[in-house]
Design goal:
The complex is a heterodimer of chains A (268) and B (456). With 268 residues, chain A is an alpha/beta fold. Chain A has a single domain (15-267), classed as Rossmann fold (3-Layer(aba) Sandwich). Chain A has helices at residues 56-64, 88-93, 111-125, 133-146, 164-178, 194-205, 246-255, 258-267, and strands spanning 15-24, 31-40, 45-49, 69-78, 81-82, 96-99, 106-110, 157-158, 182-186, 213-218, 231-236, 239-244. Chain B has 456 residues and is of the alpha/beta class. Chain B is built from ten helices and 21 strands. In chain B, strand 2 (93-98) and strand 3 (101-102) form a beta hairpin. In chain B, helix 2 runs antiparallel to helix 6 and helix 7 packs across helix 8. Chain B is globular, with a radius of gyration of 21 Å. The chains are: A alpha/beta (268), B alpha/beta (456). Chains A and B meet through helix 2, strand 7, helix 3, helix 4 and strand 8 of A and helix 7 and helix 8 of B.
Chain lengths: 268, 456
């Protein structure tokens, strides 16, 4: 099989997924995750690649606590604690951030009001006082500059009337403001032109740090040119079937996914 | 027509009133008599046989022996008044009525601009009955609505406002109707006549409130008659007792190039029904009818609106938003009538309803009746719960499920409330919503809603 990743041993993994199974919630819901194993350590950037319907976005949503999916088996430890028993808002307060593939438009609620409420929810959880208005404004200004966003963004209703690129930029901007411990980026590259892709990737790269883990879910290799992953995983039919380094992404770009699907079938 | 129940109490109330009536213009007596005849003939509308009343059963109103309320001004009245007054610095005039009758000592009429006549109707009738005669009862139709007939039969007091040509009244004129029954349930029939000559700019606000926990029936009729080139802003706040019944008709007539904006807010009453009929009688008249209904428990609110395009080249806009919690029921029937001559009509109507519980129920019904061929009329209606995608988006950022619901509910209603120009009304609604939805009391629409100006 050639290159094998050396899984670094640290005292505690940031995220440890074991044999995770999940289905669409409700009676008769289709099983999507069929035994996912994945370990992310602090400081690492992981990419999960796969075709549409492989389950890669579902994995990101399940980790963020979306209740439209139901976990039917396996375990997820986040900073050593059982992630699956936390609500979505508790996960966010504990430092998990999901950058949405399709951010919803929320008319009538200003971005700045929303973001301040979010920052304060996290601070309250940590036993910190509400953020001072000036401190908030200064922090937000800095992150907006990072994402090359116009200041008018903050006064607009959340995502309302935003172009696809603006919505994605807004996601990464929020990610920068929220300063998560584990960032999940769900197909952030889809629908972005090359300039927006560069800006968004630059924003994401600036968040790389020894404490933070980043999981990039993507169909294409192109964003990985800008956000260089430590590990690349290929997901097929709800399982990770291959893991490599950034070169695996290039190989996938060249050869597609079919050769792995065949491998997978042979193995089964 | 079958009567829902007997209207005996109202007939005997009428006899008592006629015996005591001081303002004895023959035309007024005749107006009342004819209206009462009409009411006697048709009685209370039956929801089974009367299409206009299909979704609102007024049988409970017919069953209760409401007596005519007495004027009063005690400590309870003052407490209510001080809660709802705009304060003397924020009104051009404030008229306070208790149980349908004007109370001079609680009212402010001292700083009227020139060219503005504001009186209680009783006094106006005794001084200048002839000027009023040409308008009173000429717009609100006793034939179409039994409650208009009932109100007209009881015309006694209310507000009379007349504004002369080219006068601008900067501050709002506030009419505060307080109901405060004694030991027995009472009824009042407030009547408002607003006349603006040409090129008038004014704001008029009607507040209907009552002693909490008391049972009464408000049956109001407002006639608004505007000349040409006017800019009239109207707001109505209905925050009656939760045991009260509120039925109201507003009849609006607009001259050429007159802009009329109405915001109707419903918070109170066990059962309420508003009929808002607006006739664009002069070309380029422009009507905006917006409404917001925030009810819960077992409250019922029915809004019927009519945008009557009688002449060409008139735009009209309508946005009604209902927020229904508990087992509340809402009804919206928005009719756009485009008469044969009303070419180039441009009318947009939208009704949006948020259901906060599975037991709340909404009936929304647009009705377009178009007899001209070169017109643009659109309508939309949505009814549904809060969007789960939106809630999840908030939660994924650390905001709790409850807080997300509250914020989204507030934002939904704020889409209408933020358009209300009269600050005391807007603030009252904001405070009410913030309280209802566990949000900070100092939360303002400007903090939350989308605006053009950045804070940075």
């Amino acid at each position: 099989m050639g290159w094998q990743p050396v899984l670094r041993k640290t005292e505690m993994s940031l995220l440890e997924i074991k044999n995770l199974h999940a289905k669409v919630a409700g009676a008769g819901g289709r099983e999507i995750l069929k035994g996912v194993d994945l370990v992310i350590n602090p400081g690492e950037v992981h990419a999960i690649m796969g075709k549409n319907g492989s389950g890669k976005s579902t994995l990101a949503q399940v980790l963020a606590g979306r209740e439209t999916y139901e976990v039917t088996g396996g375990s997820v430890l986040y900073k050593g604690k059982n992630l699956l028993e936390l609500s979505a808002e508790e996960r966010a307060r504990e430092g998990i951030f999901l950058a949405f593939q399709y951010p919803v438009e929320i008319p009538g609620v200003r971005t700045d009001y929303f973001l301040k409420a979010a920052v304060n929810a996290v601070r309250k959880h940590r036993g910190q006082p509400e953020i001072d208005s000036m401190a908030f404004i200064n922090m937000v200004k800095e992150k907006m500059a990072l994402l090359k966003m116009d200041k008018s963004f903050m006064a607009r209703a959340i995502n309302e009337g935003f172009s696809g690129g603006e919505k994605k930029r807004n996601e990464i901007f929020q990610m920068a403001v929220m300063d998560p411990t584990l960032a999940l980026m769900d197909e952030t590259d889809s629908g972005l032109d090359i300039d927006a892709l560069k800006t968004v990737s630059h924003g994401a790269n600036s968040l790389r740090s020894p404490e933070r883990g980043i999981l990039v879910v993507t169909h294409y290799q192109r964003m990985l040119n800008y956000i260089t992953p430590d590990y690349v995983h290929v997901m097929i039919d709800g399982r990770i079937v291959k893991t490599g380094d950034k070169n695996l992404a290039l190989e996938l770009e060249e050869k597609g996914y079919d050769w792995l699907e065949n491998d997978d079938r042979d193995a089964a | 027509m079958t009567q829902v129940a007997d209207s005996t109490i109202h007939l005997s109330n009428y006899s008592l009133l006629e015996e005591s009536a001081a303002n004895g213009h023959a035309w007024l007596r005749e107006l009342r008599r004819a209206a009462m005849e009409r009411f006697k003939e048709v009685g209370f509308p039956n929801s089974k046989t009367n299409e206009e009343w299909r979704h609102t059963n007024v049988a409970p109103i017919a069953k209760i022996p409401f007596k005519l309320g007495q004027q009063r001004a005690d400590s309870t009245t003052r407490a209510i008044q001080s809660n709802f007054t705009f304060g003397e610095h924020h009104t051009a005039a404030e008229l306070v009525f208790v149980n349908g009758q004007f109370v001079q000592e609680l009212s402010q009429l001292e700083k009227l601009p020139r060219g503005v006549t504001i009186q209680n109707l009783d006094q106006a009738l005794s001084q200048d009955g002839e000027g009023i005669k040409a308008k009173l009862g000429r717009y609100a139709d006793v034939e179409k609505n039994p409650f208009v007939a009932l109100n007209t039969g009881f015309i006694r007091d209310g507000a009379y406002i007349q504004i002369a040509r080219s006068v601008t009244v900067d501050q709002p004129i506030h009419l505060l109707f307080i109901s405060q029954p004694g030991h027995e349930p009472t009824v009042s029939h407030p009547r408002v006549l607003f006349i603006a000559e040409d090129n008038v700019e004014a704001t008029i606000v009607e507040s209907y409130v009552g002693a909490e926990g008391s049972q009464y029936f408000t049956n109001a009729v407002t006639e608004i008659v505007c000349g040409n080139d006017c800019r009239i802003d109207h707001a109505k706040l209905q925050q009656e007792s939760l045991d009260a019944y509120h039925i109201a008709t507003m009849q609006v007539d607009l001259g050429a190039k007159t802009t009329f904006v109405s915001h109707a807010a419903t918070i109170g009453a066990k059962l309420s029904r508003n009929d808002l009929n607006c006739t664009m009688a002069g070309e380029h008249a422009y009507a905006t009818l917006n409404g917001v209904v925030l009810i819960g428990g077992t409250q019922h609110c029915d809004n019927h609106t009519l945008l009557d395009h009688a002449v060409p080249n008139c735009p009209s806009h309508e946005l009604y938003k209902h927020v229904l919690a508990g087992r509340a029921t809402g009804v919206f029937r928005g009719k756009i009538l485009v008469r044969k001559d009303a070419q180039k009509t441009d009318s947009k109507q939208n009704s949006k309803t948020l259901l906060l519980s599975d037991d709340a129920n909404m009936n929304s019904q647009p009705a377009l009746e178009i007899y001209a061929d070169d017109v643009k009329c659109t309508h939309g209606s949505t009814i549904g719960p809060l969007d789960e995608e939106m809630i999840f988006y908030f939660r994924s950022r650390g905001i709790s499920y409850q807080a997300a619901r509250h914020l989204l509910t507030y934002a939904f209603a704020a889409d209408v409330t933020r358009r209300i120009k009269v600050e005391p009304v807007r603030r009252r609604l904001e405070d009410y919503m913030a309280r209802q939805h566990g949000l900070p009391q100092d939360l303002r629409i400007t903090d939350l809603g989308a605006h053009d100006e950045a804070v940075l």
